[in-house]
Amino acid sequence: MMARARAAAARIGAERLPAIAPAERAVQIARQLPLRRRRLGLALVGLGVLAIAAQSLLEWLLPYDVLALEDARRLFGLPQLEPAALVWGWAGVCLAGLVRLALAAAARTAGGVARTCALGSVTGLALGSAYLAAGGAAAALAILLLAGLASLGWQTLQHGGRALLLGAALGVSGWDMLLSAYPTLWAAALVVAAMFVWIDRLHILANDRRLFAALEQRDGLIRDLDSRTDELQRLQGTRTRLLASISHDLRQPLQAVRLYADALAGRLEQDTDAQRLLARQMQAADDATAMLDQFSEFSAIEQGMLVSRPELVNLRELLERIASSLQATHAPERLRLGVHGRRDACWVWTDRSQLARVVQNLAGNAVRYSLDARPGRAARVVLAVRPAGGGLAIDVLDNGRGIPADQLDRVFEPYVQLPVEGGAPGAPGAGRGLGLAIVRGLATQLGLSIAPVRSRPGQGSRFRILLPAQLHRPSPRVADPSGEAGPAALRLDGWLIALLDDEDLPRAALRAALEGLGATVVEAGSLARLVPRLDAESRFPDALVFDLDLGPDEPDGRAAIAELRESWELDVPAVLVTGRVGSRSVILPPRCSLHDKPVALADLAATLHRLVPQGAPRPI
Predict the structure, then answer these.
(1) CA 437 to CA 430: how far, in whole Å?
(2) Each residue's pLDDT tens digit, 534-581
């Protein structure tokens, strides 16, 4: 019976209460469960009544008391009354009462309770008349047992179950006393009724109370969990906003440090010691920038602020660029980087920079954990692209120390770090534990999947990124390979560049860096100051380099670019720089590129040359 109660409670919760809050569900189930039991119980009694009446169509299965039929004929004054007519008349009266009782709502007032009890009692008396109408004691006792069983779980005054049971017992007892020469059934009827009342009170209702208490406890746990989840999300949002603010503020001085270093590098060609110190300073700035990039990128992934801009990408070229940049910082006797894959069969439609970040993080980890892993032997890292399951796969393999088996499922979790050779987690060079978490987030963003990591301690590891077939594209007819630009190709001799940044220090550093490449720079801290300075020049600028965020009282860089282009009726190429987290969600105007701060001077110059192709007419 307890199992049946739990099943009914679950069905009510699933079918009838889909929009009820968890805090109210236990109360609603406590109200609905007796009503559902009442409908099911009354349906069972109705089937029993029909089954007893259906005996008249065949032979009577239960013992039929002919004397009871004679008493009915004498009582109604119908000497020709047939058993079938009598029993079907009785069945009709009983079914009408059962339907009325099943449709009645749970009583909430004293008058409603009285009406429900009266309806239950009348219906019970009609059922108890089976002694007279359905063939005597056997049919009456069967109906009484059925009524007792069907009333379990809703024997309360407001639902009428007990009134139905007691009415049936009273009807059976009354007709037994009136029609039997030796009445004995009344005692059995009272015992049966008392037994079912006892079962309902001590078992069914007690189990219901325990069930409802468990539901209320569960609802309390759910409310507590919801409140803790809301608090956790609030704290997570606060942490993310704080991280974004700190990242933005730190990028401004780092931008100045990096650009001043770039500007000085060209003026210290003869001083090797100064060159070495300057290289260390630039490396320190790059390390700090990489740390901010990781925190900002992970923050953007958590907030769902990443926006992908797909384009046609050649995976072999992308792997070669990444391998070249990593190999340039390590001697060949310490590190050997290889790239494998057909150049003409690995074109995909995806976001170039986000996919490059995925491969960079994997390759950087492979290099970090392979260097000096085998004393006397060079670290070996291979970047490969190959067909896989109709799509393509990017493999990053190394011959490093490998990953312990108990760590394989954790390496993509944020802030999980493995020690480098001779170090501990958190030590310099050990990473910050975000690289592979960013890989997982970017892979999800791009619709890629990560195959299970294969690793053998002491022999190396393999990470595989799977690109689905729908991203694969045929090789374009005309390839446009872009080689590495040399120093001369990045010069800006003769260029006139408009520079707009509300921060004085980064603006001065960027001006010095651009002038070091031969450009003439017209700069200002606001658009109102920049316009008259540009009007004083004899020609339009070749390019605009604007900060995206120009202060609370100024339009942003995009609006400033649009205003100047509209005023000049000229589509001047533009580069936006920003320290804003999630900047890739910014919608850019035509002939405009976006760089995160701090931007390397070489990258900025390469972007300017891409926006203003060599030989293109300059604005005059």
Answers:
(1) 15
(2) 988 888 899 999 988 887 777 788 999 999 998 888 889 999 988 776
Is residue 418 a contact partner of residue 411, using CB atoms and an 8 Å limit? Answer: yes
Tokens at 31, concatenated? 């109200």
What tokens were used for 414? Answer: 């944020």
Domain hosting residue 194, numbered range: 2-223
What was the pLDDT predicted at 614? Answer: 58
Tokens 């990045």 — which residue?
A: 490
Q: Which of the 8 DSSP states describes residue 181?
A: S
**φ, ψ of residue 180 in degrees (nearest 5):** -95, 140
Surface-to-core class of residue 249, CB atoms within 10 Å of its CB (0-12 exposed, 13-18 middle, 19+ buried): exposed
Stretch 142-146: mean pLDDT, rounded? Answer: 86
Question: For 145, how many CA atoms within 13 A lie in the half-sphere containing its CB?
Answer: 8
Which positions ≥6 away from 615 have C-beta within 8 Å?
Answer: none
Cis before residue 22, ω within 30 degrees of 0? Answer: no
In terms of Cα–Cα distance, which of 535, 526, 593 is closest to 560? 526
Looking at the domain assignment, is residue 356 inside a domain?
Answer: yes
Counted domains in the chain: 3
Query: Are the C-beta atoms of 98 and 46 separated by less than 8 Å?
Result: yes
d(CA 582, CA 580): 6
- Calpha distance 555→552 (Å, rounded): 8
What is the 3-class SS of 88-103, one letter each residue?
Answer: HHHHHHHHHHHHHHHH
Rounded to 5 degrees, φ, ψ at 527 are: -65, -35
| Confidence category of residue 26, pLDDT binned at 50, 70, 90 | low
Residue of 523 and 184 predicted with greater confidence: 523
* Angle (nearest 5°) at CA 85 between 84 and 86: 90
C-alpha distances in Å from residue 460, one per residue of 155, 439, 453, 457: 72, 19, 11, 7
Spatial distance between the Cα atoms of 315 and 336, rounded to a whole number of angstroms: 20
Query: Which of the 8 DSSP states describes residue 428?
Result: T
Q: Which residue from 113, 108, 209 is spatially nearest to 162, judged by alpha carbons?
A: 113
> What's this model's pTM, rounded to 2 decimal places?
0.47
* The last residue of a domain, from among 412, 446, 473: 473
Bridge partners of residue 455, in order along the sequence: 461
How far is it, in rounded angstroms, from Cα 14 to Cα 16? 6
* Cβ-count burial 161-185 (b if 16+ within 10 Å, e if not): bbbbbbbbbbbbbbbbeebbeeeeb
| Residue closest to 135 by CA, chosen among 64, 47, 86, 67 | 64
Are 496 and 452 members of one domain?
A: no
Backbone phi, then psi, for 390, in 5-degree steps?
Answer: 90, -20
- Structural domain contains residue 248: no
Classify residue 69 by its DSSP letter.
H
Mean pLDDT of the chain: 78
Residue 153 lies in a domain: yes
If asked whether residues 469 and 416 sit together in one domain, one would say yes
Tens of pLDDT along 380-417? 999 999 988 888 999 999 998 888 888 888 888 887 77
Integer Cα distance of 195 and 201 in angstroms: 10
pLDDT digits (tens, 9 = 90+) for 195-242: 888 887 777 777 777 777 777 787 788 888 888 888 887 877 776 666
Cβ neighbours of 600 (radius 10 Å):
17
Cβ 355 vs Cβ 446: under 8 Å: yes
